[in-house]
User: Fold these one by one.
Assistant:
Number 1:
Amino acid sequence: MPISDRTPLIGRIQLDRADRLQRLPVALDADLDRIAARMRQRDVEVFDLSQRMAPLASETQTQVAVSDGAVLGPADLDDVSQLRDAVGRWYQERFNVRLNSETEIELAPNASVAAALIALSFIDAGDMALLPDPGPPLYRTAVILAGGGVIPYPLLERNDYLPNLAAMENGLAGRLRLLVVNYPNDPTTSMGDLSVFSEIATFGRKNNIIVLSNGSFAHAVSDSQRPHSLLEVRGARGSVVELCPFDDAFGLPELPLTAVAGNRDVIAALRFMLDVAGLQPSARQVVAAVGVLDQARDICAARTSRLRESRTVISDALSKLSWRVRSSSTTPFIWAAVPTAMDMNALCRRLLRRTGIRVKPGTAFGERGEGYVRITLPEDIGTANTVAERLGSHARLYQRRIPRGRRARRKRQSDN
């Protein structure tokens, strides 16, 4: 039937979102965003310690040097090749890992894009990925957008938040394609040693799967700890590809560029996807990243030193409140078990309203994050002192003891 001038037109079409969007991790920050915004409107100072790194104070701000000759457009092939070489030199110096800069190193705009493109390259509908719980939600997002399914594997406090590979292997799906690991761990700060990493790499080769390792916090060194890269393990490049985000690794939020190193088949697929999507680093980013790697040791040392004082101040304050604190000298946050009857989302809302301090609920990292919060360490000691004072002064307003029966139930749940 032809459409006449008098035929009524539908004013609004009905658009149904793809089913995969319903499976994406739910953002839990909206309520906290609104509370923080209202507090700032009332001129209340809010300290946001919920991000991967806290904003730097002006006196500690690290400026990324960019030469006057750098342009705003995409970097040319020579500049990109120079940065790949610089990444290779840094891995050789820091981890004693020799990489082929042309076939085993690639550059992505950020860690989320790198994870998403790797998932799109190797995961088909019905394929499965093993993801840590607790763990950053970006990997779940990447796998679901690629059409895959997620199998959470538990990281338990009694096992030092290390994967139980034997238990994982017993329940393997037939179409498993990806295992994600993250050490030093976000959010638990757990450190993996080379023996654990060797088992992980062997697990990947044995089951013919990709091991995606996020080495965001493996690059710093302290007096007591020297984190390792999964690529240090002999034969790791047969299954392992590792992310090195410049913003997390060197404390530079203004430089979100991510280096990806390891298995050459994954690197080739990632390079193809980046070319198809037209995602190339800018000349300014490349020049800045080369400069950062030239002074990476000094940058990491200065940052570790700044975080040391803040970690001591905040950890002592939390311990006085009977919070069970866990941290490491090379990660910029604290993982703390909170003695309260409230769930963590409610606790974080009340904590923000009462003290002006915003932290990340453990449930943002998975079901096994219940009972915990992640607190990002400010690099400014003055901010750390203020945070510690507010936490102690207002504890009676937001902290309630867990009844004995509920404490026992929570312990049993965390052990299972």
Note: The chain has two domains: 23-52+298-415, 74-294.
Number 2:
Amino acid sequence: MNEVMKAILICPEHRLTGGVFQRMKPLALMPILGRTLLDHTLARLKRQGYMEVLVLASDRPEQVRESVGGGEAWGLEVEVIATPNELAADVAESQFSVRRANEPRPLVMVVDGLPEVSEKPLWRTNFATFELLMSAVSSPELSPLMTMRAIGPDVWVSSKARISPTAEITGPVWIGPHATISSGAKVGPNSIVEGGAFVDKRARVESAWVGPATYAGAGTAIGESFAWGNGLLNLTDGSFLEVKDDFLLKDLARPSRSRRSVSWVERVLAFLLMLLSFPKAGWVMLRSWMRREAVFDDKRVILPPPGRVDAFSRTHNLLRLNGAEGLLGRWPELWRVCRGELALVGNRPLSAEEVTALRGPVGQLWLESPAGVFSLADAEGADGESLSESLAHAAYFTTQRTLALRWRILRRCAQSFLFAERQTQDLTLSPTYPTI
């Protein structure tokens, strides 16, 4: 009777330099040479004859479960189990390994590297990560996978990529499916261009990792960096730069416009609120100017719906009136409503760090809902800027977002915004909120 070979995979929860990428998705689901780390690992286990795989995930296990399903794509039997934190190998084996007599011990490994290339894990340092990726380009086990073909010494290009005849490709280079390299562009040496990326005319990519669906503009030079969406991460010093000029660097996965347009009624109401509150706001600005203080504070936020959420996501500068009390501090945000970028009523815009902290269905609903100047938490007298205090209110609002509820929130918040009066309990809501 043949023994069934079993394996236990531990998805990494946090790594020293992986935080930038972890905002995007669990590290086990990071795209590496066109496939996720978990995909690479499961494919390798299948080649080695393993049949049953248990995946332990503490970071966004629902995403891991959705990614692998039941293992049908690899011809494996895969089960994903959520754990409260990343387990050590011996602890994972003792808790989740059930063996019959004389049955061999299961293989236990952490999904944080490319074993075909090196036993060293990724995410130690940015430069070390890049070195491992470049060594994988020439790996006989990794490079030929999918639709890849060698068109020169250490030059692997997908048959689904589009390469201009006048483009200059110098190995070692890896160019993934549906990537586009335009005329006059130079890629390499030591470069990886993930699937769906677009390197425009006369752009140069050298010693760089260009992420999926990333546009490198005409004439742009990218060197010794990770370029993902609108962000550049320097390999040497770890510095990060958000590029706001879409002609230089752009996230092609980011929607060009919101899926929910702001109505003209909201825009007109926002403009009226700006006019009515201008005397108070003007006095606050004048007072700050006379004291030689900053008139505005700013916060970088991500406005829904994001194409993806990570350190490389496009952020927006949200201004707050310095020295203003209560909701009046959001006076500059009303202009964004007039421009159609914010709703009057919605969940509060969040920073990239706060978005990363959102997990599960509540977080997904928050990101899919329009961001607004006034929130249900504000109407209920809670701290609308506090993520912990706003979660329950946001969960209720996203599931019960009726016109009547939005109008009551607006009426109550507008009264507090204009007159700064003590709020009265005139907003009737469900006595209980959804469990988070």
Note: DSSP finds twelve helices and 25 strands in the chain.
